[in-house]
């Protein structure tokens, strides 16, 4: 898709739209486009499933469902559905917390680690794709964008 063409067609009229709602719409549209592109990257799992695995691996200890939901910024129910599908595929397992048996901790399996290694998630192919997404964006602009979105995130949590 040529983004510039889509945004310049006669059917789209932004008029005097303030930059704040425009940015929110832009972020939503980007998220949808990125998810569609990322879903085609792996045959075995979706982008959201892969994102859950990334988030699990970022945790110092195996997270609970509630902890993972907070990290992913998604509802308990949505994350539970993602985890059920990953568990069915053998990518994650849940085990009772050693200190509080009521809590279930989520961890990646050996099968998942093999998948990550096979797909070289930290390798050259991933760097190439990320590089293409951020082509032409300087470090200062990127830092400003990160700071802006983090501030928006903090403000959102106060609603």
Lay out the secondary structure:
Blueprint lengths: L2 H6 L10 H21 L7 H12 L6 H8 L3 H13 L3 E5 L7 E5 L1 H9 L5 H10 L5 H19 L2
Shape descriptor: globular
The CATH class name of the largest domain reads: Mainly Alpha
- SS-derived structural category: mainly alpha
What is the annotated CATH architecture of the largest domain? Orthogonal Bundle
Radius of gyration: 19 Å
Distance between the termini: 35 Å
How helical, in percent, are the residues?
A: 55-70%
Mean pLDDT: 86
Q: How large is the share of residues in beta strands?
A: 5-15%
Strand order within the widest sheet?
A: 1-2
Q: Describe the biggest sheet? A: 2 strands, antiparallel
What is the H/E string? HHHHHEEHHH
CATH fold naming of the largest domain = Arc Repressor Mutant, subunit A
Q: Any idea how many domains? A: 2
Give your account of this protein's structure.
The structure is a single chain. With 159 residues, the chain is mainly α. The protein folds into two domains: 18-120, Winged helix-like DNA-binding domain superfamily/Winged helix DNA-binding domain (Arc Repressor Mutant, subunit A, Orthogonal Bundle); 123-159. It has eight helices and two strands. Strand 1 and strand 2 (104-108) form a beta hairpin. Helix 4 (65-72) crosses helix 5 (76-88). The protein is globular. The mean pLDDT is 86.
């Amino acid at each position: 898709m040529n983004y510039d063409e889509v945004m310049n067609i006669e059917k789209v009229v932004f008029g005097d739209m303030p930059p704040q709602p425009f940015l929110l719409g832009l972020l939503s549209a980007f998220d949808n486009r990125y998810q569609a592109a990322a879903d085609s990257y792996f045959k075995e799992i979706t982008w959201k499933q892969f994102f859950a695995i990334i988030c699990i691996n970022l945790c110092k200890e195996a997270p609970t469902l509630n902890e993972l939901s907070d990290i992913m910024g998604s509802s308990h129910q949505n994350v539970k559905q993602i985890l059920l599908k990953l568990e069915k595929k053998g990518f994650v397992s849940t085990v009772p917390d050693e200190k509080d048996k009521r809590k279930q901790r989520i961890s990646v399996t050996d099968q998942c680690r093999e998948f990550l290694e096979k797909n070289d998630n930290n390798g050259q192919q991933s760097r190439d794709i990320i590089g293409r997404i951020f082509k032409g964006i300087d470090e200062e602009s990127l830092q400003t964008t990160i700071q802006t979105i983090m501030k928006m995130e903090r403000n959102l949590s106060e609603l």
